[in-house]
Amino acid sequence: MAEVKFNDRARAGVEGLDLILAGGLPSRRLYLLEGAPGSGKTTLALQFLREGIKQGEKALYITLSETKEELSAVAASHGWNIEEFDIFEFSSASEVFGDGREQSILHPWELELGETIRLVQEEVERVKPKRVVFDSLSEMRLLAQDPLRYRRQVLALKQFFSGRDTTVILVDDMTGNDSGRDVHLHSLCHGVITLERLTLDFGAARRRLQVQKLRGVDFIAGYHDFTIRTGGLEIYPRLIASTHHAEFLGEITPSGVAELDNLLGGGPLRGTSTLLTGPAGSGKTTIALQYLYAACERGEHCTVYEFDERIGTLLARARAFSLDFQKHIESGVLTIQQIDPAEISPGEFAARVRHEVERRGSRMIVVDSLNGYLAAMPQEQQLILQMHELLSYLSQKGVVTFLINPQNGLVGSMSTNLNISYVADAVILLRFFEAGGRVRKAISVLKNRGGVHEDTIRELRIDRDGVRVGDPLSRFRGILTGTPEYTGANEPLMEDRSGKD
């Protein structure tokens, strides 16, 4: 075969897959696309052929397993027309070659394997396509009956295409092989792509893709999440933070509340992540919104991912604190995305974040909350590692990130389902405490990798004037436990300005 140059690629027609493959499949090679029924093989194969048509290439779909009507139904569900390329099905072989053939060719299971291969070769000679999909190898196994004969015929098929300017995808649903994957078949093909469909205890099925091998290409290894939507597969390449570095100034991003900014030495730095942790109702989201509003006022594009709360409720709560986000939403500066916890995978969420950063230029990201993120992916593995990679990516891009992490309980000892405090650059802790017969809030900074920070515990109030931070609670002891002990007299606590007693 002719030498394949780096740019001599057959694009797959799926943006995410082409990124994983570093530009597409090397042309004039034989590839294996394998996966269980329902994993998306036919859809991906059709997208591969349609991309060839867009490039002005002839395309051929050879089907032993599905009829043209079935393929047409799949294509129609995505708004496609299969009349764009040639389809060869063995049930209509007489229409292709004439009525002189014996009637035994009307059904693939009645054909000898050698006859099947010969019919395929004749059709390829007639159409002269640049892209071919052969669907599927399971029927060839059934026809061959003997594994050795089957492998010889697959090898003969490879040799037949080797002298032609044709990129071939062999589809295998892995149902005719007791051991699942065919290792010998893997060795014959230039590349192997595996699709998987995972059924969770609750929510939508998860699908993922893996490139098992691709000779001569530095592809992105590992699993990549994908979904099947109207219009085809959407593949989300695994995020590798180190490949996305961008130059930026590590400047301070203030909130507009001087006392709050002083806790972090002026505010979070560009490219850092801040974890807001504390019990429900302690003000975590409101503090994040204060920083978010200040960024919007500066004209910076920002994005909020809302796992827990309805967007309408969030906006209404913000208005009660004199934060009018509606004008920034209308101007396009702010985007708030409601995330359905049962319908999203880690890969898709990371892809959404990348889209906001790279396409919209978002400079601040708020994730509300990590508990919602965890609930969205209860059966996923390595969530901490995936979140760490996402935060590293945002850091490389100079994005300021706020992570809201609710803790279990209201007073006393607290716990969390997702301990990510060591990953964040700064940690702001909020607590309830009781004084003067009232429930009050306290705020403190536990760490700040971006610079100096106060080590004091201050009172926090959130009312119609917004976020206010008071003096250090120097005459209390044990505030972080939720059961403080008063050690002085006439401690100056903050007044309520909400208009309520």
TrEMBL record:
The domain of life is Bacteria
InterPro entries from the entry?
Answer: AAA+_ATPase, Circadian_clock_KaiC-rel, KaiC, KaiC-like_dom, KaiC_dom, P-loop_NTPase
Q: Where is this region: Disordered?
A: 482-501
Tell me the keywords, alphabetical order: Hydrolase, Kinase, Phosphoprotein, Repeat, Transferase
Q: Name one Pfam family in it.
A: ATPase
| EC assignment | 2.7.11.1
Q: Give, as one word, the top-level EC class.
A: transferase
**Record-annotated KaiC domain positions:** 8-249, 251-483
Name used for this protein in its record:
non-specific serine/threonine protein kinase
Q: Which lineage do the record's taxonomy fields give for this organism?
A: Bacteria, Pseudomonadati, Pseudomonadota, Alphaproteobacteria, Hyphomicrobiales
